[in-house]
Design brief:
N-(1-d-carboxylethyl)-l-norvaline Dehydrogenase, domain 2, 8-stranded mixed sheet, alpha/beta
Length: about 290
C-alpha cells in the first residue's frame, strides 16, 4: 500500500496526455520522470510542462518558489532503465496494445514488484494491457480527462486480475493529487469517451452540414450546457489525430456508426491541421501550448 509521502512517478509518453499527467505529478510534489522514445518529443513535453508552471506563476496562481520547485521535480529520459526507482508508473503512450504490453513487460525487469502500473487508455482493454506484465494484479486503468492539469476527474477501471490492494492504493494516490475518482468497468470508452466521442462527431457533422459556424456551436454549448469549453476548442486541445485514433478504436470494437469519425476529420489530419499543437485546427493559434492554467 502506498503512503501519502513524496513518491517517484514515471510517466510514459511525452505527448498531450503524458505532458499533462507529468504536470499533475510534479505540481503535487512528486519526483517525476517523463519517458519517451524520441528525444525531440521528450524535450517538447518538458517544455509544455515548464510552460504551464511559468504561466501559473505569471497569473499569480502559483508563487515563484513553488513554480520553480515543480519544474525542478521533473526530469526526462529515453532510457526505460532510469524508471527503476518509480513507485508508480503511468502509461500514456499511443493507443497500440502491443506497444503498451511491451512497455509493461520491459518495466517488469526494471522496477520493484510493488510498483503500481497505471494505464491511461480509454479504448483498449485494461486486462489486455495488463497481460504484458508478469504481475497483472498490479495494473489499473486510470483515464485522466483532458486537459489533465485542469480537469479533476479520473476514471478508474480494474483489469480482470487487478488486486484489491492495487485498486485501493490507486484511489488513495489519485485522491492525494486532488483528483476525483469514478470507478467504471473495463469496457471500450469507459464512461466519458463512450458519450463524448459520438457527441463530438455529431458536432463535427453539424459543422460539415452547415447547420452553424464553429463559433456558434461552441457558444451554444457554453451557453446552454455549461461546459467549460466548446467542442471545437476541446478538439483543438486533444488533437484531431488523437480524436481520429480514439474514435476508430472504439468503432472497431463496438461497430456503432456514431463512433466513426466524419470525413472532415480525415481531411484535417491529412492537411496537418491537428489543433493547438500545430497552430491550426478548427481555430488558429499563436500560442501552441497544449493547455493553459
Amino acid at each position: 500500500m502506498l503512503s501519502n509521502q513524496t513518491k517517484t512517478v514515471g510517466v510514459l509518453g511525452a505527448g498531450t496526455m503524458g505532458a499533462g499527467i507529468a504536470t499533475v505529478m510534479a505540481r503535487a510534489g512528486h519526483r517525476t520522470i517523463l519517458y519517451d522514445l524520441s528525444e525531440a518529443n521528450l524535450q517538447r513535453g518538458i517544455g509544455t510542462v515548464h510552460g504551464f508552471f511559468d504561466k501559473s506563476v505569471k497569473l499569480g496562481k502559483l508563487d515563484a518558489t513553488a513554480g520553480q520547485g515543480a519544474k525542478d521535480a521533473l526530469t526526462g529520459t529515453t532510457d526505460v532503465a532510469e524508471l527503476a526507482p518509480c513507485d508508480v508508473v503511468v502509461e500514456a503512450v499511443f493507443e497500440d496494445l502491443a506497444l503498451k504490453k511491451d512497455l509493461f513487460h520491459r518495466l517488469d525487469e526494471v522496477v520493484s514488484q510493488s510498483t503500481l502500473f497505471h494505464t491511461n487508455t480509454s479504448t483498449l482493454s485494461v486486462t489486455g494491457i495488463a497481460s504484458g506484465s508478469r504481475l497483472p494484479e498490479r495494473v489499473v486503468g486510470t483515464h485522466y480527462c483532458n486537459p489533465a492539469p485542469l480537469m479533476k476527474l479520473v476514471e478508474v477501471a480494474d483489469g480482470r486480475h487487478t488486486a484489491d490492494w492495487a485498486h485501493k492504493a490507486t484511489i488513495e494516490f489519485l485522491g492525494s493529487l486532488g483528483k476525483t475518482s469514478v470507478v467504471t468497468k473495463d469496457r471500450p470508452g469507459f464512461i466519458v469517451n463512450r458519450f463524448l466521442i459520438p457527441w463530438e462527431n455529431s458536432c463535427i457533422r453539424a459543422l460539415e452540414a452547415g447547420v452553424a459556424t464553429k463559433e456558434a456551436i461552441d457558444a451554444a454549448v457554453l451557453g446552454s450546457l455549461g461546459h467549460p469549453m466548446g467542442p471545437f476548442r476541446l478538439l483543438d486541445i486533444v488533437g484531431m489525430d488523437i480524436h481520429q485514433q480514439v474514435a476508430m478504436r472504439l468503432y472497431e470494437q463496438l461497430r456503432d456508426p456514431r463512433f466513426y469519425p466524419p470525413p472532415m476529420v480525415e481531411r484535417m489530419v491529412a492537411a496537418g491541421d491537428l489543433g493547438r499543437k500545430t497552430g491550426r485546427g478548427f481555430y488558429e493559434y499563436d500560442d501552441t501550448r497544449l493547455f493553459g492554467s
